[in-house]
Known about the structure:
The structure is a single chain. The chain is an alpha+beta fold. The protein contains three helices and three strands. The protein folds into two domains: 46 residues; 47 residues, no CATH class. α1 packs antiparallel against α2. It is elongated and about 60 Å long. The mean pLDDT is 91.
Amino acid sequence: MNLEQIDLALQKVDELVELTSSAEYKTYIYNHLNPVKYELKRIRSFVANGENPPPAAPEFTYRIEHLTTSGWNVMDNKDTKMAKSAASDKLNYYISEGVNPDALRVVVDL
């Protein structure tokens, strides 16, 4: 996003707040628009300084572990550094293949 786009988005958020100011659920609407407004302002400050904004929240990767007699171990070396959706799909695959769900877990891959 460039500054012009960010400023336009901020203007639209302000317009939405104004449009809904007399709505029955204005507090609910405002509470959801307010974080958007401040995230746009955060991004704008970085763009104005010629920097790339860091992500608002870290993106975690996940691994699947299997409980064995020696404790929790990675199920397969391919089962590391996965996106959350991929880890969920793989977990469901193992369960469908007959692995005891109580012996499986998904953990954040550090």
